[in-house]
Amino acid sequence: VPNIIGYVRIITGILAFYCAQDWKAFFGLYFVSYFLDCLDGLAARKLNQATRFGQMLDMVTDRCCTACLLALLAHLYPGVLGFTFYLLLALDLGSHYCMVYSQLLSGTENHKKVSEKATWLLRTYYTNQAVLFLLCLFNESFFVMCFLLFHAKGGSPDAQWTETPAMVVVAVCAPFMALKQICNVLQLLMACGNIVAFDVQQRAQQKAS
Predict the structure, then answer these.
(1) 68-88 pLDDT, tens per residue?
(2) pLDDT digits (tens, 9 = 90+) for 27-37
(3) In the 3-class helix/strand/coil scheme, how is the chain assigned residue by residue?
(4) Catalytic residues, which ones?
(5) Other beta carbons within 10 Å of 82
């Protein structure tokens, strides 16, 4: 069941970006895709159907959707702001890739398991489901509202009425979005440190043998 939800989520995500020129279609489809993201994990836990494939599918879909959304925003907003979206895209992909790779080296089955040596913020982010959910929700909402603001401010006349609500949501979500990016930076630094430590350990073992 969770994997079926994941497949439907992938389809709605693809359709959302295919319809990106229509802000209503994109907004609706992306919302459905994100709602399914919340649902698949819940279904896996409730039905005791959690699998490694499901974890991988969920994480890869998350990263692809976020990357496509940030790339879309970078295209819509030129200049420094667009460049910032590209940097955030690189940070998101890079930090999660390094995290998964470091976990594979250590033999950890779940990429969301962090060691006690991790910072308090990162441990709270990955061990507290409510914190994880809310930060991801506010983070995604911030970027989706940036998309909506572009259309409200001139891209689409029928979206002008959404400008004020979108600005309010952006203002509310901005601090949480920033906190999520801090978590990405901490995750990247921790993962790189773990990979270096693994290299040092391997070399020491080779010298000892």
Answers:
(1) 999 999 999 989 999 999 999
(2) 999 989 988 88
(3) CHHHHHHHHHHHHHHHHHCCCCHHHHHHHHHHHHHHHHHHHHHHHHCCCCCHHHHHHHHHHHHHHHHHHHHHHHHHCCHHHHHHHHHHHHHHHHHHHHHHHHHHHHCCCCCCCCCCCCCHHHHHHHHCHHHHHHHHHHHHHHHHHHHHHHHHHHHCHHHHHHHHHHHHHHHHHHHHHHHHHHHHHHHHHHHHHHHHHHHHHHHHHHHHC
(4) 62
(5) 15
